[in-house]
Specification:
The protein is of the alpha/beta class. It has six helices and 15 strands. α3 crosses α5.
C-alpha cells in the first residue's frame, strides 16, 4: 500500500508495538519486537505518535519519500517511547521538517531543551549538528484540545508513573484514541479514558498484561502503569468503540502466546485485533485491516 499521505484518507500504521524494551528474535517475528511507534496518515498529513525503536523502521521507509513533513506527538518520555529518535534518519537530512509536540516535563525549561539535552545529547552517537532537518517544538498542556487544519486532537491524562497523555484524533467524523501506558483502576473505568474513547472508530489500548499476570500473587504487576486486555474490552464496550486494538505487548509475550490471546480477545469483543508491525487500519471503514 502507498505510504505517502493522500487526501480523503485516514489510516493508522503500526511500526512498533512492544512495551518496555525491544524484543527481537525468532519468537517475535509475526508481531514484531520494536517498541512503541504508530503513524496516522490523514487527509494529506502525516502524524507520528511516540518514537520507540519502531520509528527507525518508519524512517527507513520515509527516505524514499523525501522531503518529509510530519507532526510528532509524545505520550511521555520513558525509554520505550523515545529510544528511536536519535536514530531517525530523516531528522538528519536537510529539507525535512518535523513539528514535535509533547507535555513539558516537570523539571525541564522547554520541550526543545528536554529533547536536546536529555534525549539526544547523552544518547545519540551522531553529533547533534548532524540533525539538519527543521525541528520545531511545541508544548501541549495535558487536557487541552487543538486543531491541525480540519484534524481535531483532544488530549487527556493517563494513569502512569511520571504521567502520560492520551490522544484522540478526529477527522471527517471519524476518531482514533491512542491510549497507551495507562493502568486501570480497581473499582471503576478511568473517567478520562472513557471520555476520550466514547464512540471512537478505533481504540488503541495498552494491554501489556493479562488479568492473570496482573494479579499474579507471586509477581503482581499492580502499580506498574499498564493494563490488561480484559480491561480494554470493558472500556471498548462501555464507550461504544467500533474496533479495539490490543497494543504495547509485553516483551516476554511470544507470537504463539499472542495468537492465543487474539482468540480470547475476539471471543470477548469480536471486532478486535492485536497490533503487529506493518498492520494498517482503514479508519474510514471502522478500523478494517488493509491488505499489504
Amino acid at each position: 500500500m502507498e505510504t505517502s499521505p493522500s487526501s480523503n484518507q485516514f489510516v493508522v500504521q503500526f511500526w512498533g508495538v512492544r512495551g518496555s524494551v525491544p524484543a527481537p528474535g525468532k519468537d517475535t517475528v509475526r508481531y514484531g519486537g520494536n517498541t512503541s511507534c504508530i503513524e496516522m496518515r490523514i487527509d494529506g498529513k502525516r502524524l507520528i505518535f511516540d518514537a520507540g525503536t519502531g520509528l527507525q523502521m518508519l524512517g527507513q521507509q520515509l527516505q524514499a519519500q523525501m522531503p518529509v513533513e510530519a507532526y510528532m506527538f509524545f505520550t511521555h518520555y520513558h525509554w520505550d517511547h523515545i529510544q528511536g529518535f536519535p536514530f531517525f534518519t530523516p531528522a538528519f537530512i536537510r529539507g525535512n521538517s518535523f513539528k514535535i509536540h509533547g507535555a513539558l516535563p516537570p523539571d525541564a525549561e522547554s520541550i526543545q531543551e528536554h529533547f536536546i539535552e536529555r534525549i539526544l545529547h547523552p544518547n545519540s552517537p551522531v553529533p547533534l549538528e548532524g540533525m539538519q532537518a527543521d525541528l520545531n517544538f511545541y508544548e501541549i498542556v495535558c487536557g487541552e484540545n487543538f486543531k491541525l487544519d480540519d484534524i481535531k486532537i483532544e488530549t487527556g491524562p493517563l494513569n502512569h508513573p511520571n504521567t502520560a497523555m492520551g490522544y484522540r484524533v478526529t477527522w471527517n467524523g471519524h476518531s482514533v484514541f491512542y491510549c497507551t501506558d495507562t493502568e486501570h483502576f480497581p473499582d471503576r473505568i478511568d473517567e478520562n479514558v472513557l471520555e476520550l474513547a466514547q464512540g471512537a472508530d478505533v481504540l488503541i489500548y495498552d494491554a501489556m498484561y493479562t488479568d492473570e499476570e496482573y494479579h499474579n500473587p507471586k509477581s503482581p504487576k499492580i502499580g506498574w502503569g499498564h493494563s490488561t486486555w480484559q480491561e480494554g474490552v470493558k472500556v471498548a464496550k462501555e464507550a461504544g468503540v467500533k474496533q479495539l486494538v490490543i497494543f504495547h505487548h509485553d516483551p516476554t509475550h511470544h507470537d504463539d502466546f499472542l495468537d492465543e490471546m487474539a482468540v480470547k480477545v475476539r471471543g470477548a469483543f469480536p471486532n478486535s485485533v492485536l497490533a503487529r508491525e506493518g498492520l494498517i487500519l482503514d479508519v474510514l471503514k471502522s478500523g478494517t485491516p488493509v491488505a499489504v
